[in-house]
Design brief:
mainly alpha; DNA polymerase, domain 1; 2 domains; three-stranded antiparallel sheet; 3 strands
Amino acid sequence: MACCVCMNGDKASHLDILLDDLEAWLGILHSQRYVSEHTLAAYRRDLNKLAIFLVKQGCEEWAELDQDRLSAFIGPLLSTNSLLPTSVQRMLSAMRGFYDWLGQQSKVSVNPARAFKIKRQPRELPHVIDVDTIHALLDAPPPEGEHAIKLWTRDRAVMELFYSSGLRVSELSNAQLIDIDLSDGIITVTGKGRKTRVLPVGRKAIIAIRDWLRIRSDFLKADSGNWIFLTERGGRFSERAIQFALESQARRIGIAQHLHPHLLRHCFASHLLESSQDLRAVQELLGHASISTTQIYTHLDYQHLANVYDKAHPRAKKE
């Protein structure tokens, strides 16, 4: 792998060896754990930086990373604000997973990232859009032109499925025809850690997906495979392509908010919790390993209730 840092022959060779291990691990994440393309790219950037740091320190193996070196690597990133604390947390998460794998390969005996902690920042609440805006998005009239209508039919089915079932973008992108049963209204997805869950698909989403499947053959090529959603060239509808499609549809109908797949997942969770008050059910539907992750939506729901209270209670209304 090419590297933008100039090094002498020995150091470049050591770096290549380290990066070979990294690529092997990333390959496993991609092929066996269905980690998203965005996450893989972030892990590659983060661990590339660590590899370069180790080589500059005179290290030849990943096993030479210890607590002191890890502090020397992470410290300047925080003190100079070159990375946000959330980005450093992601970097540490990548290191923990990578060093766990290195341990399984008998290349290290200790995972130095396991015991390394930085002060956690307060978790920002996810942004959501209200139900009326969601309806405006999903019920928008089609564009003009035969080709534009076909793309809109696909994109509307994608948006309906995101909002109906709370999928991650990687789960939707990798979903195949065999995974969805429109008669029973369910879809089976494989999420983080290769965990499989079966999700309900709502009535409006079923209608939109059936509309798409009627024209899916127009996108088919010889090597298209069995992905539910396809690009114009007949390939799998990748995460980046889904992002662009959603942004385009939002702009077309004049929605000011930045529309992205995870926003529709947030809206699914927040609106469902607001109506049901069933935190455990929302946790299961989202595929969260810990309920503490799902609890961020209770804060959103509290904000909604507080706003209602402020507007409605006789002793709370502002003069």
